[in-house]
Amino acid sequence: MPQKLLKTAHYIELGNYQHWPVLIPQRIRLYTYEQIPLFLKENPYITDGYRAHLPSKLCLKSIFILSNETVNIWSHLLGFLLFFSLGVNDLLSVLPASGANREDYVIYAIGLFCFQVCMLCSVGYHLFSCHRSEKTCRRWLALDYAGISVGILGCYVPGIFYAFYCNAFWRQVYLLTVLSLILAVFSAQVHPRYLSKECTSDVVIFPVCHKSFLSLFQLFLPRVIIMYLIAGSAFLFYVTKIPERYFPGQLNYLGASHQVWHVLVVAMFYWWHQTAVYIMHFRHSQSCPAHTTRS
Ligand SMILES: [Zn+2]
């Protein structure tokens, strides 16, 4: 390392490992599973690399150190940048080239905004989960759950819009339902009453909504099936804690289930966005049957 860099490099303790150089002016200690507060103990197979007891400022600075949350933070930060760039690309290039109308623009903007909110809530939680206040940590956790609901519901907006493209009444009914669900779920999950519980509404909303309009997706069934496969495997990694349960202590920094879950969530949203573009092209190329109402 050059002399100049060495001067600014500080060292962090990496649990039982060794000292790593980091380019931040504070020392941030990492802890083992046994050393962290009870409210942080949720995965015994991740045995080391925990940040804990930090004030907000140091939580933020810990983004630049190697901890067991580094991949979780950066995967969704990059996910946010991906969906932000996709949004800009859609508005400036994809939608104008597809002859999109005002509704298409609104639908894409809402869908991608939901994905971005989901990514940022997750980044926030993984950054501030090490906060010294349990209340702050729980608030961010609630926001992370709320963000997942918003992201999933963001999938429904283009889905419903293009599924019911030729049926103005049901399109409006479903879109209004979904938009009010977004608001209801979001406010319920960030409400203090729910802060101590894990919220299951994501799982509940998922099949209820899908059942009602899956039949309309017959034309695009392979794409819908792939979407469900990604969502299903993401959820499976999330709940089973595979693979770290078979390699406790060996996947603390890379390869843990939560990291796989993060990557699959980004892949799922990306896949669904591409599917929406595909279905939009299809809808624009066909005219609606005579007995239906487009608007
Ligand atoms: Zn996460």
From TrEMBL:
<keyword id="KW-0862">Zinc</keyword>
<dbReference type="InterPro" id="IPR004254">
    <property type="entry name" value="AdipoR/HlyIII-related"/>
</dbReference>
<feature type="transmembrane region" description="Helical">
    <location>
        <begin position="220"/>
        <end position="240"/>
    </location>
</feature>
<dbReference type="GO" id="GO:0046872">
    <property type="term" value="F:metal ion binding"/>
</dbReference>
<feature type="transmembrane region" description="Helical">
    <location>
        <begin position="63"/>
        <end position="85"/>
    </location>
</feature>
<keyword id="KW-0472">Membrane</keyword>
<keyword id="KW-0812">Transmembrane</keyword>
<dbReference type="GO" id="GO:0038023">
    <property type="term" value="F:signaling receptor activity"/>
</dbReference>
<protein>
    <submittedName>
        <fullName>Progestin and adipoQ receptor family member IIIb</fullName>
    </submittedName>
</protein>
<feature type="transmembrane region" description="Helical">
    <location>
        <begin position="140"/>
        <end position="163"/>
    </location>
</feature>
<keyword id="KW-0479">Metal-binding</keyword>
<feature type="transmembrane region" description="Helical">
    <location>
        <begin position="260"/>
        <end position="280"/>
    </location>
</feature>
<feature type="binding site">
    <location>
        <position position="126"/>
    </location>
    <ligand>
        <name>Zn(2+)</name>
    </ligand>
</feature>
<keyword id="KW-1133">Transmembrane helix</keyword>
<comment type="similarity">
    <text>Belongs to the ADIPOR family.</text>
</comment>
<feature type="binding site">
    <location>
        <position position="262"/>
    </location>
    <ligand>
        <name>Zn(2+)</name>
    </ligand>
</feature>
<feature type="transmembrane region" description="Helical">
    <location>
        <begin position="169"/>
        <end position="188"/>
    </location>
</feature>
<dbReference type="Pfam" id="PF03006">
    <property type="entry name" value="HlyIII"/>
</dbReference>
<feature type="binding site">
    <location>
        <position position="258"/>
    </location>
    <ligand>
        <name>Zn(2+)</name>
    </ligand>
</feature>
<feature type="transmembrane region" description="Helical">
    <location>
        <begin position="105"/>
        <end position="128"/>
    </location>
</feature>
<dbReference type="GO" id="GO:0016020">
    <property type="term" value="C:membrane"/>
</dbReference>
